[in-house]
Amino acid sequence: MRTTTFSLSLTCSWPSWTRVILIALLLGGCATNPSRTGTILDLTYSFDEDTVYWPTNEPFHWEKASWGPTLKGYWYASAVYSASEHGGTHLDAPIHFAESGWTVDEIPVANLTGKAIVLDIRSQVESNPDYSLQIDDIARWEDSYGLIPPKAVVLLYTGFGQYWPEKSRYLGSFTPEDPMTLHFPGFSAEAISFLLHKREILGIGIDTASIDPGQSRDFPVHQILGQANCYALENVAHLDRLPPRGARITALPMKIRGGTGAPVRIIAILP
């Protein structure tokens, strides 16, 4: 954010209260000008009965426990919910695929915010829904936008977000309850190794149900990422609204002690 500086000469004959109001108005205008503060974008899907979960996981459940006026006349509402850690817009902690990796509550808060880098592979996915990001894709992006900076969060824009929450289309299967039949794009092991070791990123995200492609059987991207003590964001919403670079992302998960994953609220501040 740029800092605005100005000088103002106020005549001593002006009443002191007038000078105070004028200065407050000027400073308030600088602080609230949207062009200086940027636009905040929510990259999170709401959780409800339609939320897509990994086929083998328990879905989201929410039920009203108390809902209405009390005997004393005031309104009171409360509900209960339950769900698996891995579903909807959520964070995968390193321990999800690495025994010694951080749990959700152990991830340093400083690691949950960084520059957002958006890699667009929609054209490749149109002809191959099982496509995985390649190092050549990263090289072409960097030719256009510059090197990916350290401590960035790399988001893979596949276009599958357009299908949310139609489970069959989003998971790429007429039998979405069977994880062996899923078809959607993801990262490749080679690409994630490059991003971790050559670009020193903080984490990754994707607009599909998994950072590994749907046809993966041993989830190498999860394994490599977890061993590097980095996290993943899955089912990220509205990546079509982010620029290739220039935005900043913050992802704050529910702080589950010992958690392998958690629902997460993701926001981006656009340039």
CATH-defined superfamily:
Putative cyclase
Radius of gyration: 23 Å
Major beta-sheet overview: 7 strands, mixed, barrel
Question: CATH topology, which one?
Answer: Glucose Oxidase, domain 1
Query: Would you report the number of β strands?
Result: 12
Mean pLDDT: 91
Helix content: 10-25%
Question: What can you see in these coordinates?
Answer:
23% of the residues lie in helices and 25% in strands. It has 271 residues and is α/β, with parallel strands linked by helices. It has one domain: Glucose Oxidase, domain 1, CATH 3.50.30. The strands form three sheets. A seven-stranded mixed beta barrel has the order 4-10-9-7-5-11-12. Strands 2-3 form a two-stranded antiparallel sheet. Strand 11 (247-253) and strand 12 form a beta hairpin. Helix 6 (189-198) runs parallel beside helix 7. It is globular and about 65 Å long. The protein starts with 15 loop residues before the first helix and ends with a strand.
What's this entry about, in short?
Helix 6 packs parallel to helix 7.
Top keywords for this entry?
271 residues; seven-stranded mixed beta barrel; two-stranded antiparallel sheet; 12 strands; globular
Secondary structure: elements and pairs:
Layout (H helix, E strand, L loop, with lengths): L15 H17 L1 H4 L1 E4 L18 E9 L5 E8 L7 E3 L20 E8 L1 H6 L4 E2 L1 H11 L6 E6 L9 H5 L14 E2 L1 H10 L4 E4 L13 H8 L3 E4 L12 E7 L7 E10 L1
Parallel strand pairs: 5-7, 6-8, 7-9, 9-10
Antiparallel strand pairs: 1-12, 2-3, 4-10, 4-12, 5-11, 11-12
